[in-house]
Amino acid sequence: MGRLAGISIAQQARETWKARVAAEREAKREGRGPQKRERAPHTQPPESRRLVALLWNIARWPDGYVVNAEDSPPLTPDLRLLIRRGYVVLERRTAYSVWAAVREVRQRESVLRLTAAGRAHLAGTVVSEAERAYIRSALVSGTLR
């Protein structure tokens, strides 16, 4: 039996691979390539400044800051300390979606919300750009304490 007319699957795969590599090289040349993953910070601020920077980060999310979910940080010791001090409250809510209803799966979210005491504590302090950068890089690199 002979081969059917047209490009074979192996040739198609080779051509798409070459096109993908050429597109990635072009993007790298133009400076729009994939973003480098941020490194873990080398030093960390003192505990009091780190907690204030965490409060600043939580305050940026008006609907609450989701933890223990996919692509979000775990409930770290510093976050637990904020909960114990009363600056943040941990709410657990059930998130329903169409697919969850079909699979009969209940998904729970853990959300951190700023309390009035947390807002008052944050209002009296200034978070420096270095502390903000530390929190952002620690969240991205997964090294948040």
Structure summarized in a few sentences:
The chain is of the alpha+beta class and 145 residues long.
Would you kindly provide a written description of the structure presented here, covering whatever features stand out?
It is a single chain. This protein has 6 helices and 3 strands; from the N terminus they run ααβαβαβαα. α2 packs across α5. It has 2 domains: 1-34, no CATH class; 47-141, no CATH class. A 3-stranded antiparallel beta sheet has the order 1-3-2. It is 49% helix and 13% strand. It has helices at 9-30, 47-59, 77-85, 98-103, 116-123, 129-141, and strands at residues 65-67, 88-95, 107-114. It has 145 residues and is of the alpha+beta class. It is elongated, with a radius of gyration of 23 Å. The longest helix has 22 residues, at 9-30.
Biggest sheet: strands, sense, closure? 3 strands, antiparallel
Report the sheet-strand fraction.
5-15%
Numbering strands along the chain, what is their spatial order in the largest sheet? Answer: 1-3-2
Average pLDDT, all residues: 81
- The total count of helices amounts to 6
The shape is elongated
How would you classify the helix and strand content by structural class?
A: alpha+beta
Rg measurement, Å: 23 Å
Segments where pLDDT lies below 50 for 5+ residues? none
Tell me the domain tally. Answer: 2
Total beta strand runs: 3
Termini gap:
65 Å
SSE pattern: HHEHEHEHH
Helix content: 40-55%
